Amino acid sequence: MDEQTERDIETFRQWVADTPPGGMVFFGGAGVSTESGIPDFRSPDGLYAQKYPHPPEQMISRSFFDAHPREFFDFYCDRMLALDAQPNQAHRKLAELERVGTLSAVVTQNIDGLHQKAGSSNVLELHGSVLRNYCMECGAAYSVDELLAQRDRADDSVPRCPACSGIVKPDVVLYEEALDERTLQASVDAIARAALLVVAGTSLAVYPAAGLIDFFQGDHLVIVNRTPTPRDRQADLCLAANVGEVFDF
Q1: Domains of the chain, earliest start first
Q2: Annotated binding residues for Zn(2+), as ranges?
Q3: 3-state SS, one letter per residue, for the chain
Q4: pLDDT tens across 106-157, in order?
Q5: Which residues participate in the annotated binding site?
Q6: Which of 16, 170, 195, 248 is deepest in the core (most CB within 10 A)?
């Protein structure tokens, strides 16, 4: 890490210290969890760079899920679940900042549940969570362990509800699906109220999530990402560093 980046990180940490109670909001993407061993999507080693029978973007679309549920679950369970992953330094520090009253909300594009595992309570999951699943027919809720058990029992490897035989779908937002309106509005409200907004580990390429920073009207916008983003010019500070390093204080 060069001296300028180190100075910028110190500036960021001072801004955190100076933030009024509840004035900080964190908006994170896949890069927040890569240090926990979960691959991101768009990096050279990410999910989209891997070779599959169909493009990964297609395999995690709603139309593919409906037309090819077995192939969907083969891919989803193999590549989208990382149930042994543990929170990293960024997750832990954010939970600490919430406990001391600095951080009011975590807005995340991730579906891994690691923020809650680290102890954060106000987590707005824009794209849902692999930990929640529901029957598409009767609405019954199932844990991820129950989904996997039902898949193991199924002749076609498609998890089904024991009560009505409906397909059990992960509570994640697939391509071609809309975000949950309540979660989206809560995210807009949190960002609009923030004095300090930290955007980390996201390419800011996926909408409508990427457009959330347009609602920020506070004092400092900080972007933490290893590579440039389309919104860098809007930021008061851009840190080309690992998220865990920046939050190691």
Answers
A1: 1-37+86-127+178-249 (3.40.50.1220)
A2: 135, 138, 161, 164
A3: CCHHHHHHHHHHHHHHHHCCCCCEEEEECHHHCHHHCCCCCCCCCCHHHCCCCCCHHHHCEHHHHHHCHHHHHHHHHHHHCCCCCCCCHHHHHHHHHHHCCCEEEEEECCCCCHHHHHCCCCEEECCEEEEEEEECCCCCEEEHHHHHHHHHHCCCCCCECCCCCCEEEEEECCECCCCCHHHHHHHHHHHHHCCEEEEECCCCCCCCHHHHHHHCCCCEEEEECCCCCCCHHHCCEEECCCHHHHCCC
A4: 999 999 999 999 999 999 999 999 999 999 999 999 999 999 999 999 999 9
A5: 135, 138, 161, 164
A6: 170
Please report, as a single letter, which amino acid is at residue 226.
Answer: R
**Does residue 68 have an active-site annotation?**
no
Can you tell me the mean pLDDT for 213-239? 96
Query: pLDDT at position 124, please?
Result: 98
Query: Using 50, 70 and 90 to split pLDDT, how confident is the model at 53?
Result: confident
**Looking at residues 11-39, what average pLDDT do you find?**
96
Residue 29 CA to residue 195 CA, distance in Å, equals: 20
